[in-house]
Every structure is written in C-alpha cells, then in structure tokens.
Amino acid sequence: MEKRQPIPVAEAVHRVMDYAFPAKKELVPLTQAHGRFIAEAVRADHDVPAFDRSPYDGYAIRSIDSKEASSEHPVRFQVVGEIGAGYVYDEVVGHRQAVRIMTGAPIPQGCDAVVMLELTHTFEENQQMCMSIKRNFEAGTNISYKGEDVQQGAVLIEKGQYINPGVMALLATFGYEQVPVFRKTVIGVMATGSELLDPGEPLQPGKIRNSNAYMMMAQIERAGAEVKYFGKFSDDLELCIENVEKALQEVDMLITTGGVSVGDYDYLPAIYEAINAKVLFNKVAMRPGSVTTVAAREGQLLFGLSGNPSACYVGFELFVRPIIRTAYSNSQPHLRREQAILGKDFTKANPFTRFVRAHAYYEKGQLVAVPSGFDKSSAVSSLASANAFIVLPGGSRGYEKGMSVTVLLLEDLQGSEWPWDNIEKSYR
Ligand SMILES: Nc1nc2c(c(=O)[nH]1)N[C@H]1C(S)=C(S)[C@@H](COP(=O)(O)OP(=O)(O)OC[C@H]3O[C@@H](n4cnc5c(N)ncnc54)[C@H](O)[C@@H]3O)O[C@H]1N2
Ligand code: MOO
Ligand SMILES: [Mg+2]
Fold first, then answer.
1. Pocket of ligand 2 (CB under 6 A)
2. Whose CA is nearest to atom 10 of ligand 1?
C-alpha cells in the first residue's frame, strides 16, 4: 500500500485554485438578481439626483427676497404655484414669489432655497394665496443638488460583487431591467456507501442515513452555485465508475462523499485511476478532512470529500467554495478570516492544523469563538450551530480559554482574498 504524503492546507488550496475557471455570463430579470454575482462593472450613466430637488415639503423661494425678514417684519410672498414630486414647474419664479413644493420635486427656475412648511405662515388675501416667513434664508438652503449622491461616470459596483439589497437599488436606479450575472456553476453531488439510507427510510442495523448529501447541497447553495444531485450509490466499483463518468458530462465539477480513505470499499482512488483523472493530492495536514482528495480530468475538478460529516463539511468550505466564488470573478473567494478570543479551553493536541467547528459571536465588541460541541471528524451534531472554524495550527499541545485565535467565518458574504498566510499559533 502506498503511503500518503500529507501536504499543508495552503499548498492544497493552491493546487485546487490552479484549476479555477470563469463562469459564463447570462442576463436575468432584475427581480431575480438578488444573491447572484454581477458579471460587469456598473458605471453611473447619469447623476443622482439627476436634477436639483427639494428635501422637504415647503416653499421654494429666491433667497434674496428673504433678506429683510425678521419676527417684527415678516416678509410675505405670493404663492404662484404648487409642485409635487414627479412634476416640473415651468415658469420662472420672480420677485417675492414662492412655489409650494413637495419633497423630491425639482427646484423651480429662479429659486435657490426651500423653506420648510413648519417655518412658514400660509394665508389667503384678496383670493390670492400668500405665505410669510420671519427670517432670512441663505442661498442653497435645503437644496439637494444634482449629482450630490452619485456623479455620472462613477464606478459603483465592481465586476464579481455579490448582489445585495443595496446593489439591487443601484441596479434599478440605473435602469437595469436585465442584469448581467455569472451563470451559476453546476456542481454534482454523489454520496457513496453501502450503509447509506435515504432520510425517509427507517433505520436498520449497521445502516445510517445519508446526511452529507443534504448538508453539501445547502453548502453549495450558500456558496452561490447550483446543485445537481445524483443520489447515493453503494460501494460497488463498476457502478460508481459508470455513474461518475455519466455525472461528469452534466456538471462543471463533481463532489463525492465517502470512500477516499484506505478501506477495502474505499473506491474513489480506483475510480480516479479508471477514469484517468489526475490526483492533485490525497492527504492534507489538517483535521478533520485529512483524507480529502482532489482530482482533475481535462480541467474538470472532482472533489473526493470524506464520508465523515465534519470532515466533509470542512473540505467543502476550504476547497470547493473558493472555486465557486472565483468562477464569479469575486476578489475575496475564501472564507473571511478574523481574530477571535477562544471562549473555552481546547485541550486536544494538534499534530495537524485543526479546524474546530465553532460558534462565533460578539461580546462587548470582541469576537469570541467557542467550539460548538463534539469535535470528532465523524461528528454531525456540532455542525448545526457552527458559523466559524477556529484554526489551530499543528504542532501544539492544546489551547486555553482567552487565547487569541484565527477564525474563518462561514456565514459571511464578504470573504477574504487569501486567508492562509501567517496563521500564528495562538497567543494570549
Ligand atoms: N486505516 C485508516 N483508516 C482511516 C483513515 C486512515 O488514514 N487510515 N482515515 C480516517 C479518516 S481521518 C477519515 S476522515 C475517514 C474517511 O473515510 P472515507 O472518506 O473513506 O469515508 P467512508 O469510509 O465512506 O465513511 C467514513 C464514515 O462516514 C460515514 N458516512 C459516509 N458517507 C456518509 C454520508 N453520506 N452521510 C453521513 N455519513 C456518512 C460512514 O458511515 C463512516 O462512518 O476514514 C478514517 N479511516
Ligand atoms: O480526514 Mo479525517 O477527517 O482527518 O478525521
Ligand atoms: Mg472509508
């Protein structure tokens, strides 16, 4: 039996990233763009606001006419018109004339100030609407100027940016009825193992329910890709080869779970050989997920993730997620890295770099990360509350509560460019 040579995590991620590929583009209606990644930069083709407008309900005036106003000597204006948002007052406003104006309406020609309704007194005289004010208003008072928010030509959204609700607002502002986004990468999922039952089946001796497939399908969606689920397959070499071959025709990349270790029924190594896929690595100096194997055939990636649920979960986030986000031109495709305070002792020794599933939260402005439970590679229970991995570099005897540790955040949309440099052993 060939002895597997563990490689450092960063080296493994590099080897996978060498196979990154760009996704194709497609146009989707604006209403379906939220949560996608934009395929072109968005440049402002007009100013926002596109015209000088009123930020208040009140009266538009010529500031010069208010110069003499005081509480003893209010100045009165003739109200010559009224405009709501969406309309334009098309006369030129003259001496001691005012236009009743609503929030969002364009400033009439001749006017250079808006007086809030609350500061005015409105009355009727000789069947003529009038308004008076008791103080002077400088030119420019209460005007929202053309271009004060966005100037024409400004790049507002970079290619590869995640489309969040604020981006949606900008897309609508600039008339994107159809939005250029990256086509979702299609990722095949296949579970292997003769012990696997579907969630709807009753338990039987020696069998377990297939949880990894459902977990990974959700991870794929969280990362922004599309799932193609091929089901579960028993440990039968010929059957698996045939189905892996078939699946590869239908997806951009394929993830399998289980069968990558050295057991008699761990067939993934034989499958890669049979289909002529080149194994990029089959052992990573990490826990869980040391058996994570990645292979490539004609540029197409095959991720052989561990059958152990926690190992499978970690393998996905470290190796598959950044490939997805890179396909979308996202500049921060990896998990977001932060420093946190370890919230609880972690006494296990670490020959390999350990990714402890953890719950991270803020306490008085400080990020704290607490291991989320049973920590074996086989653990399924600790994943539900995990929103971070605590990264404990190898070669240590354990960590104590209060130490500063590196964490990778799982539910953060921002990500990081490359989190793998200079991860220090924890310190106080
Ligand atoms: N002699 C050695 N044995 C093992 C080694 C080793 O280096 N030498 N590595 C261990 C490590 S580390 C891991 S991790 C596992 C990896 O196992 P495989 O990837 O080959 O996965 P399986 O053998 O198929 O299953 C392992 C475990 O996970 C359960 N499983 C499998 N699929 C699913 C699924 N879809 N949902 C839920 N659980 C699943 C399976 O029943 C097993 O209990 O190997 C160690 N052994
Ligand atoms: O690959 Mo295993 O997950 O290290 O426990
Ligand atoms: Mg095995």
1. 287-291, 306, 308, 311, 377
2. 261
**What domains can you pick out in the chain, each with its CATH number?**
9-26+183-327 (3.40.980.10), 28-46+158-180 (3.90.105.10), 58-133 (2.170.190.11), 337-409 (2.40.340.10)
Please give the structure tokens belonging to residue 104.
Answer: 């969002």
d(CA 2, ligand 2 centre) in Å:
18
Which amino acid, one-letter code, is at 102? M
Q: What is the pLDDT of residues 178-197, one digit of tens each?
A: 999 999 999 999 999 999 99
Give the model confidence (pLDDT) of 308-339 as tens digits.
999 999 999 999 999 999 999 999 999 999 99
Q: Is the ipTM of this complex over 0.95?
A: yes
**Contact assessment for residue 315 and residue 366, using Cβ atoms and an 8 Å cutoff:** no
Tokens representing 390 are: 């605590």
Ligand in closest contact with the CA of 306: 1
Instruction: State which residues of the chain have pLDDT below 70.
Output: 1
From residue 167, give the alpha-carbon distance in Å to each of 238, 329, 374. Answer: 49, 17, 40
Peptide bond into 49 cis (omega under 30): yes
The best mutation among 219, 308, 310, 353 to test binding of ligand 1, ranked by most ligand atoms within 8 Å of the C-beta, falls on: 308
CA dihedral sign of residues 190, 192, 194, 196: negative
- pLDDT at position 1 is 67
pTM: 0.94
191 lines ligand 1 (CB under 6 A): yes
